[in-house]
What does this fold into?
Amino acid sequence: MLYFNGNPNQSIGNKQQFTAIVNDMIYPGIKDTIFGVITDRKVKYFEWTLPTGWKTTQNQTGTFLTGQGVKQINVIPDYVNNGVIKVRGVNDLYTGFSETSSFTADRGFSYTNYPASITFGDLSPKTFSTSLFNGITYEWSAPTGWQINGLGNSLEALNLNSVSVTPAFCLIGGDAKVKVRLKKSGEVSAWYDFAECQGVIFPTITTNVTTVYQYEDVTFSLNNINLSGIQSIEWSGANVCHVGSQEATGNIMFTQSGQCLLNATVHVSGCYTPLMLSKIITVVPHRMFVTGTSLICNQGTYIINNLPAGSTVNWRTGLPLRIVSEQGKEQVVVSKVLSIVSTSVSADITRYGHTFTVTKSGIQIGTKAPSIVVYNAGGSAMVDPPYYTGVNYRITAHGSGLASKPSSYFAWEVEISP
It folds into this structure.
């Protein structure tokens, strides 16, 4: 356990000496016998680690060992660095170590003003401030192309603990954050990068729909974007048809199903290099289909389910049918030309220059001719029978797949008598 004689929490700009002291430590399980008394063996050597720029009165820096039985050091901090003081016990062979005891010196540095984040495209000035320590020089740094107090992306001055930073998004890369470090009498602190500020939040491609269907318009958007600094946005990708305006929100139609790549290219005002964004979209096969009657006596009506608005429709039929009304619409009416034929009705659907076809197959036109069976007077069916005068015959006609009762429309009997 560490304790101190003096103040290890001196504010930045001060460097008064203080003493760091470690309590006795023992080697677990190792005993010594002194004048017949068994005692725990005490740690003789200690390893210390000081923050960057700090030293002992013996000019020891970084990580070092103290001599046998030395449990304290006299520390001189520098002017500008925060840090952690550490100590741990070392065995007599210098091959084993105890757990580390540490103390974090609080020198009063804090971030006092900053944006929680910077939205991509927002070019308005942002204030960054830290604690003020009189007599300290503050050096500020921002990403390339940004301006600090209307100047370049680097600026330093005495007591300059607050600056106005204007973002830019040209040639931006990596961790785009504002940083500051402190200087005095040739001593320089580590960089403080406003860790609580998330920096530039880059936009991502999102949509509110849970299922993306082929050939249907879907609205995709860029979130975390400020359009004030955006010149244009281009939507593109394999099997992508962009049908909306080139803005942060785009209406997209995919011409293929499966895994499709959607891209958004963001052009920032005054920048040569755009921001490239991509997202893999899972596209489900289209859900359009034709419904209607499977048996036409004279006329039939057919409709396209789930037809998107703005589609162009061209209905087609085979020779046994003809279109009588509603061509080009979601619903069509067809009429019988020839009977006793199985055919289909198709619709060619065009959306933004891409045409695909949906079909209703297996449509029966008219009814099938009944089969005729001739029975003799004994009730046996006859194949190519001879017919005689004065003999009773029964002729029965059955429609295929229909009821066989004589009272039904498609099943009838005729008795022939001499």
